[in-house]
Amino acid sequence: MTAAREDPARFIALEGRLALVAGGAGGIGSAIVRMFQAAGAAVVVADRPGTTAPEDAEFLPCDVADAASVASLFETLQKTRSNLDILVHAAGVTQDAVLWKMTPDAWQNVLRVNLDSAFHLLHGAVPMLRRAESASVILVTSINGERGKFGQANYAASKAGLIGLGRTAARELGAFGIRVNMIAPGMIRTAMTEALTDEVRERAQDESVLRRLGEPDDVARVALFLASGLSRHVTGQVLRVDGGQLIA
After folding, report:
1. CA dihedral sign of residues 166, 8, 27, 68
2. Radius of gyration of the chain (CA)
3. Fewer CB near the terminus (10 Å): N or C of the chain?
4. Strand, helix or coil at 47?
């Protein structure tokens, strides 16, 4: 007996779903926002006051590294929404230095923004995610969280921590139908990477077996897969979007 063919477009559609994208004003975050909107989702962006969300996205100013600010964010959300379908953590900063020159403040600031914020968001979002029919959490980590990176002890540690947090959350939240996955980009063309030297960007491009640097849209496409029904049996995974940097 042959199963009836199903239209794959219906699995990737996000109509009627609400997504919260933390760090949605940044290069990767804003690409994810636009991709989700194109798929039909309603999107709320949480980012620092003074930043700008992509057009048509609701913006809620929030310091995601501050527990009280995140708690206030979810108090605001729950006044108008009953549940949350998709949570994306795309906030991230760097303060690079070799270990013996890195200040304690530089270490703590990167851990607060990149890792502590993810805990605050998950902690606040779980009650709303549990009310969704099928919820998805996406944490944007980095290949440097897997391999380490010279001069980035704080950044690499924070991104490795996201992987551990995400895999633990996948175990704890799976019983509620909540999937948790991580995206590990390689070098992506954003304002953050454009501030790097040409030599650093060229080295990353040479590491890629595709001989190109990634674009924010490359990450957004994978985020759409993880947010949608196409990945309904995928959880606790790290999907690299690195052009093969780690296999080069």
Report:
1. negative
2. 18
3. N
4. strand
pTM of the complete model = 0.94
| pLDDT for residue 184 | 98
Break the chain into its structural domains and give their ranges.
14-241
Give the pair of three-digit tokens for residue 207: 């590491």
Poorest-confidence range of 1-10, 16-25, 39-48, 119-128?
1-10
155 is a catalytic site residue: yes
Q: Pick the catalytic residue from 74, 107, 155, 225.
A: 155
> Which residues, in sequence order, are CB contacts of 102 under 8 Å at separation 6+?
95, 153, 154
Return phi, psi of residue 127, to 5°: -60, -40
H-only helix segments in the chain:
9-12, 27-38, 67-80, 104-111, 117-130, 144-147, 153-173, 191-194, 198-207, 216-227
Calpha distance 125→121 (Å, rounded)? 6
Helix axes 153-173, 117-130, angle to 10 degrees: 20
Amino acid (one-letter) located at 23:
G
Contact of 192 with 152, CB cutoff 8 Å: no
Task: Tell me if residue 21 falls in helix, strand or coil.
Answer: strand
Residues 6+ apart with CB under 8 A from 185: 28, 140, 142, 143, 214, 218, 219, 240, 241, 242
pLDDT at residue 225 tops 90: yes
